[in-house]
Amino acid sequence: MTAFLVIIVLALLAITFWQISKVYNLSKPSGDDGVIANDKDNQKQGKIMLIFMVFLYGLMIYSFVNLSKFYLPEASSAHGSSYDQLMFISIGVIMVVQVITQILLHYFAYKYRGKKGKRALFYADNNTLEFIWTVIPVVVLAGLIIYGLVSWTQIMNPQQDEDTMVVEIYAYQFDWRARYAGKDNVLGKANVRFIEGVNQLGVDETDEYGKDDVIVNELHLPVNKPVIFKFRSQDVLHSAYFPFFRSQMNVVPGMITEFGFTPTTTSKEIKNSEYMLEKVKRINEIRKERSEDLIAEGRTALDDYEFEYYLLCNKICGVTHYNMQMKIVVEEEEDFNKWMEEQQTFGELLAQQ
Amino acid sequence: MSAEAITAQPENHSEAHAHHHHEQPFIEKYIFSTDHKMIAKQYLITGLIMGFIGIAMSLLMRLQLAWPDEKFWIFEALLGKFGTDGVMDPSIYLALVTIHGTIMVFFVLTAGLSGTFSNLLIPLQIGARDMASGFLNMLSYWLFFLSSVIMVSSLFVEAGPASAGWTVYPPLSALPQAIGGSGMGMTLWLVSMTIFIASSLLGSLNYIVTVLNLRTEGMSMTRLPLTVWAFFVTAIIGVVSFPVLLSAGLLLLMDRSFGTSFFLSDIYIQGEVLAHQGGSPVLYEHLFWFLGHPEVYIVLLPALGITSEVIATNARKPIFGYRAMVASILAIAFLSTVVWGHHMFVSGMNPFLGSVFTFTTLLIAIPSAVKAFNYITTLWKGNLQFNPAMLFSIGLVSTFITGGLTGIILGDSTLDINVHDTYFVVAHFHLVMGISALYGLFAGVYHWFPKMFGRMMNKNLGYVHFWVTAVGAYGVFFPMHFIGMAGLPRRYYTNTAFPYFDDLSDTNVLISVFAMVTAAAQIVFIYNFISSIFYGKRATQNPWNSTTLEWTAPVEHIHGNWYGELPKVYRWSYDYSKLNADESDYVIPGQDFIPQNVPLMEGEEELNH
Predict the structure, then answer these.
(1) How far, in Å, CA of B171 to CA of B179, rounded?
(2) I want to staple B411 with a disulfide (CB 3.0 to 4.6 A). Which of A266, B26, B335, B361 is the partner?
(3) Which tens digits make up the pLDDT trace of A55-102?
C-alpha cells in the first residue's frame, strides 16, 4: 500500500513537472528555442543573481543575529580565553573576505550580464594583480598561523609541577569513569588484562600506587588547579570532548593520550552567569511546551533542566554513542577535598571483597 | 556568433579514415562498449543512480534529526526491521551516516564526476580518437559497476551495513562485537572499496597515458583546456593516494579475518580480552587520511576544471591567468598529499606534527584563493551568457569560497580542538566539497549534454533547478555552522539526551525543511535529464560557440570521434572576444570566438599566456 502511494505521488510529481515544462514551452516568445540563453534570459537571470545576493546576505545576517547565541559561553578554562580570542579574530578575517568576494562575484554576474552585440574584454593576464592576491593571503595566513601555533604549543605542553593533579579518564562502550591518583598523586598501573569483577578499569592489584586511587563516575575538579588528564579506552576509539573548557582528545585503545587544562569557573558561577541563566530559561520554556504535548498524549512530562558541565563522546563508538556523557563539577578546593574524603579508594574497594 | 561559424571542419566526409564503420551489436555498443563516449554515459548514469540513493539517505537522517520524537511510516517502509513502527533504530542511523558518506564521496563525486567527464572530455578535447586503452577503460567501468552493486547489496545484510562512519576507523570497524554493522556489512564494504580502487586506478592510469601521449598535432601542454589539466592532475593524485587506502583496507581485512594486530591492541569487549596486541588505530588514521585528504581534491579539481571551461565560454572571455590556474592546480595537488594530519590534531598524534600540518594546511589556502580571485576576474567586463551551466559554475565559486574560508578555522590546530567532529565540520565539508563538486557535476551535465546525447536540455527547468538548489544548499549548511559552534557533535542519532541542545531544535527543523526542498528540486533535474535524452531539441555542432576541439567533432557519435583526419591545433583554448590588430572587429569578423583548430590569422599575435 505504501509503495503504491509512493508511486502515485511520484507519478503526480512527474506530471506536474511535465505540465510546467509545457507551460514554459507555450509561454516562450517565438525565436526562443528553450535551450540556449538569450538576451531576455540574461537580463532575468542577472537580476535574480542580485536577488540571490540579497538572500545570501540576509541569511548570513539572520544567522549571526539569531544563531550566534548558540556559541558556547565564555571559556571555563585558563587557556580557553586565548582560544576564544583566536576564534573571533579568525571569524572576523574570514567574514571580511566572505563579504567582499561574494559581493564582487554576484555583482559582477549582474553587472556584466550578456547582451547581443556587446563585446567582452579580452583580458587574459595581469601579473601585478596575480601578485597582489597571492601576497595578501600569504601575509594574512602567516599572521594566523603564527598566532595559532603559539597558542597550540602552550595548550599542548602544559607546565607540570607538584601542584598538578593527575586524573585518568577511562572510556568504554558507553560510559566514562574517572580515576584520581590519590594521595601519592601517582596512578597505579593498569591494563585491560587485569579487568575482573569489581576491578572494572583493570588496575594492577599488586601495584602499591594503585591502592589509594579513587574511581568515580562523576568528574570533580578543584577550581584554578591545573589538571592533567590521561585518557585510556578499553574497547574502541572515543573522544573526550569538554566543550566548555575548549578541550578535546581522542581516547585510543592501546595507548595513553593526554590533555591538560586549568578550570577557572566553578559550576556554581557558570550556573549563575547571565549567559547560562538566559539559556536555561529558554530551554525550560521549550521543555514546558513539549511537556504540555506529552501530557496531552498521556505521557510523563519532562523535568526542568539545570545546567551542569559535561564531558561527552565525540568519536563514533557504537549504537548509543549519542548518549555517552559524564557530569563534571568544578568547585572550590575545600569542597573538592571534602568530596574526595567521602570516596572509596581502590584499596578499600578490594578489601570489601 | 553566426550559424556559419568558421570551424575549419574537414569538408570531405567520405575521405578514407582509419576507423571504418559497421553496425555494432547491441551488447558491444551499449553494454561492453570500449568507446569512451559510451563509457562516460555509463559512468554518469550509474553515478546519478548512486546519488539518488545517497541523497535519499540524507533525507532520512534529516527527518530523524529534526523530529526525533515523531514516527514516520517511511522509516518502516524503507528501513524494514530497523524502522519498526516508524521509529528509526540508532544503529541504522549510523549505517546511514556511513553509507551516505561512502556513496557520495566515492561513487558519486569520484566515479560519477571525474569518471564521466575525464572519459568524455580527455579524448575529445586533446584531439584523440579514444582512450589509450579502450579495453582497460571498459574494465574500469565494469569494476566500478560491480563495486556499486556490492555496496548497495550490503544494505540488505541481516545485521545491517557498515556503520563505523565513512572513515571506518578500527577497532569499531574491526569488531563485530562492537557494532552489528561491523560483521558481514563491513566485509562487503571492504570488498566493494577494494574493487572500486582497482577501477579507479585503471581509469586514472588510462587518463594519464592518454593526456601524455595522444595529444593531437599542435596541442602542447600549455594549450590544453583547464578541464584536461584538472583531470590529468586528478588522475595523478589518485594513482599516488588510492593504493594507500587499499593497503589500509587490506590490513583491516587481515585484522578482521586473520587475527593480525595492525590496528588493534589492549581490547576488552563483551566480557573478554582479545588476543590482539601491539597495533595502533592511529596508524590506520594516518593511512586512511593519506588518501582521505587528497580525495577531497580528487573530487574538487575536476569540478573546478569544468567551471573554468564553462565560465570562460559563457563569459565570452579568456579565463583570467591561465598559467596561474595551472600552477594552482599543481600546487594544490602537491600540497594535498602533505596535509592529511589536519584530520588528526586531537588523535593523540605528537603535537609537534600538529604544528607542521597546520602550516601545510593553511598554505593550501593560497592557491585556492588565487583560483577564486581568477574566476571573479574572469566575470569582470564579460558578456555573460546565463545558461544553466554558467549559473552552476558561479554557484560553485560562491560555495567554494564560503566553505573554503571555514577551512581556515578547522585547519588551525588550536581552533580545531573545540570544533573537531562537530557540525561545524559537517557544514564546512559539505559546502566546500559536497555542494561545490555537485555544482561542478551539474554544470558539466548541462554544458556537455549535447555532446553526450546529441540533444539539448531545457534551460527553464535548468533555471528552476539551479535557483531552488542554490537557496536550499545555503539554507541547509550556513546555519549548520552555528550548531557546530554550540558544541554539538556530529553522528549523534538524537540530542534529546542533552537538554543543553534543546534550543537548537528549531534550527534543526529549518535545516531539514531546506534539505527536503533542495532534494525536491533534484527531481526537476532528473525529469529534465531523462526527457531531454529522448525528446530534447536536437543539438547543433557547437551550441555554446566554444573554442575547444570537442565542438569540432560531429554531433552523432562515431568511432574515432572525427571523420577524416584529426584536427590540428594552432592556438590555446581561450580565444574569446579577441580583437584584430586595429581593434575594429574580432579576429574573425562577426564571430567572438576562435576554435583551436583555426590557424593564426595574418598579423595576429599568439599571446604569451
Answers:
(1) 10
(2) B361
(3) 999 999 999 999 999 999 999 999 999 999 999 999 999 999 999 999
Set of cell numbers at residue B128 = 584523440
CA-CA-CA-CA dihedral for B48, B54, B55, B57, to nearest 10: 150
Sheet holding A219-222, edge to edge: A219-222, A325-331, A309-313, A238-242, A247-251
> Which of B54, B43, B140 lies closest to B100 in space, CA to CA?
B54
Evaluate if residue A294 carries a pLDDT over 90: no
Q: Is the pLDDT of residue B100 over 70?
A: yes
| Contacts (Cβ under 8 Å, ≥6 apart) of B440 | B113, B300, B302, B303, B304, B306, B307, B392, B393, B396
Residue B18 above 80 pLDDT?
no
The cell numbers describing B554, all together, are: 560531429
Rounded Cα distance between B500 and A284, Å, is 10
| Helical (H) or strand (E) element with B255 | helix B226-257
* Cross-chain Cβ contact B470/A52 below 8 Å: yes
In this structure, the strands spanning A214-216 and A257-261 are unpaired
pLDDT above 80 (res B422): yes
Contact B124, B189 (CB under 8 A): no
Higher-pLDDT residue of B508 and A159 is B508
Q: Read off the DSSP letter of residue B538.
A: B
Shortest CA gap B57–chain A (Å) = 16
CATH code: domain A165-269+304-352 is 2.60.40.420
Residues 6+ apart with CB under 8 A from B51: B103, B104, B107, B108, B112
B165 and chain A in contact, CB less than 8 A: yes
B590: its cell numbers: 562577426
Best mutation target, B408, B490, B493, to test chain A (most A CBs within 10 A): B408
Report which residue type is found at B5: A
Residue B132 near residue B211, CB atoms below 8 Å = no
Q: How many CB pairs under 8 A join A and B?
A: 403
Nearest to B104 by CA among B58, B162, B139: B58
* pLDDT for B5 beyond 70: no
Q: Which of B195, B199, B196, B190 is nearest to B258 (CA)?
A: B190
Q: How far apart are CA B51 and CA B108, in angstroms?
A: 6
- DSSP letters of B74-116? HHHHHHGGGGGGG---HHHHHHHHHHHHHIIIIIIIIIIIIIH
* CB half-sphere exposure, B520, CA atoms < 13 A: 16
Contact with chain A for residue B390, Cβ under 8 A: yes
DSSP, res A263: B
The confidence score (pLDDT) of residue B16 equals: 42
Answer for the pair B203, B179: CB distance below 8 angstroms, yes or no: no
The pLDDT, as a whole number, for residue B70 is 86
SS3 B602: coil
The domain limits of chain A are 165-269+304-352
| Domains with residue ranges and CATH for chain B | 35-552 (1.20.210.10)
Is B397 an 8 Å CB contact of chain A?
A: yes
Nearest in space to B47 (alpha carbons), one of B529, B544, B559: B529
When CB atoms are compared, the residue of A104, A149, A314 closest to B376 is: A104
- Please report the DSSP string for A92-157 in residue order: HHHHHHHHHHHHHHHHHHHHTB--TTPPPP-----HHHHHHHHHHHHHHHHHHHHHHHHHHHHHHS
